[in-house]
Amino acid sequence: MTALQQRVLTAAVLLALLLGALLYPHGWVFASVTLVLIAAAAWEWFRLNSATPYMAYVAGAICAMVCGALWTAGAHSIPLPGLWIGATAAWCLAGAVLLYRGVPLWAQIPAALRQIGGLLVLVCAWLAVIQAKERGTAFLLSALALAWVADTGAYFVGRAWGGRWFRTRLAPSISPGKTWEGFCGGLAVAFLLAYGWWAADTALASTTPSLYTIVGQHSPLLLVVVVPALTAWSVVGDLLESLVKRSANVKDSSALLPGHGGVLDRIDALLPTLPASMFLVHVCAN
Are 197 and 142 in contact (CB under 8 A)? Predict the structure, then answer.
């Protein structure tokens, strides 16, 4: 099997699994599938941050138990605006500092602090995706789609025109392949997605609004601010994971997903955007 075939097969299996869980009428199925993925991401995170193999497995188990306890306690249906505000602010601050200082600063942070911080980020992201699902499948998919299309647009535009318009790279010391041209391309595609989805929801009078429809109903002009912000947060998540991998001197977070690397490699852009999406809903719905 070629690398491309392996990549396509893995993607097809993951897509079938996630779509099946997402469309299943009982929410605990989707919660369970995403819990397994986030626990695997916790295992990867600890391995990337100086944990022993045993401690990495323990971290994955702890992550699963915490998420399970939150589900049992009903946290998936309790409004948590303070958490989303705090998480979004923390991503803004930590992202700016870490991307500015780069790998040297990350290596200076005590391993225990890095490990615990990552665990909190993953649990927060899991809770955000579960609460997004509670708001409706359309809302969740719209929040996920922006990070996906922005990344895809950035890849293809960066491959075609990277380095032609801007003299500097986006983050040369962290991810040399990422360009400002790619970022602009990803942002353009994200705008098309957001305004297209909002227009479709409006025309069809959808009863299950997307993230963009909720923001657009509050103020259509607000999308001009929200889309670049979410796109930037998705890039920050991607770059911070690249920073961590560069510090650990590895290419992928693990080999759990053949042809794709690890779970963190697939969800890094969602870690900041999901809590930010829940924050935006709180702002626009009140």
Answer: yes
